[in-house]
Write a structure and sequence with these properties.
By secondary structure, the chain is of the alpha/beta class. The protein has a single domain (4-228), classed as NAD(P)-binding Rossmann-like Domain (Rossmann fold). The protein has helices spanning 13-24, 36-48, 63-76, 100-125, 149-168, 187-192, 204-215; strands at residues 4-8, 28-33, 52-57, 82-85, 132-136, 175-181, 226-228. The chain has a 7-stranded parallel β-sheet, sandwiched between helices. It starts with a strand and ends in a 6-residue tail after the last strand.
């Protein structure tokens, strides 16, 4: 059986790029995101590229909706091989302008979401012959920048979570890796910073290729944190 991958934030941007790259390998991909129409559009692209896809609309920060996904997976598959946590929420706002609602939204999507997804799907990953969890972070988790304190807190928290989970799943030989890109050429980036210099942005296809390479490593082989950025970004 071809590998089975679950991708969050799969309706656009990096999640879409990862799904299409996996399709080139003939994988079955489960596309998770909040907007079903976007997921179905990506599913059609995946099918056209040689893969197979299931679209599942869910908010990854909602435990009941994640549990619904887990139940669906349990009825269709006896294992999964790859979980890629791409879903993310950007917030460029200084501390004094960051209200409770904005803080909670960013933490819930960027940190609680991967926690819920991992907790739900690790039992199925343990049944894989070569399991991978790949969490998409940001360079802000490695270096402090002003004006993005909530976003940085969420991604730095996810970095710690990734390290801890990697140690916890080491005996099961499930690789758990953090990719920490610089700014990416995605709809989320352009919505947050419409005037961003394009030469500072990494193409999502580059990140997707790295995700695919990580998931293709032999069982028992893993990686540390990975930083990907252009030469022009500090």
């Amino acid at each position: 059986m071809n590998p089975i991958a679950v991708i969050t934030g799969a309706g656009q941007g990096l999640g879409r790029a990862v799904a299409l790259r996996f399709a080139q390998e003939g994988m079955t991909v489960v596309l998770v995101g909040r907007t079903l129409a976007k997921l179905e559009s990506v599913a059609a692209e995946v099918t056209a590229a040689g893969g197979s896809a299931i679209a599942f609309a869910a908010d990854v920060s909602d435990s009941a909706q994640v549990e619904g996904l887990r139940a669906l997976m349990g009825t269709r598959f006896d294992h999964i091989d790859i979980l890629v946590n791409c879903a993310g929420e950007a917030l460029i706002r200084n501390l004094e302008e960051t209200d409770d609602m904005a803080w909670d939204r960013v933490i819930n999507i960027n940190l609680k979401g991967p926690f819920l997804m991992c907790r739900a799907l690790v039992p199925l990953l343990k049944q894989s012959a070569n399991g991978s969890i790949i969490n998409i972070l940001s360079k802000v988790a490695l270096k402090g920048y002003g004006g993005v304190s909530a976003y940085t807190a969420s991604k730095t928290g996810l970095l710690g979570f990734t390290h801890s989970l990697a140690a916890e799943l080491d005996e099961a030989e499930i690789r758990v890796v953090a990719i920490c890109p610089g700014p990416m050429d995605t709809p989320m980036r352009w919505a947050a910073t419409p005037d961003h210099d394009p030469k500072l942005l990494v193409k999502p296809e580059i990140i997707a290729e790295t995700v695919c390479q990580l998931a293709s490593l032999p069982r028992g082989v893993t990686s540390g944190d990975i930083l990907l950025q252009t030469h022009h970004y500090d």
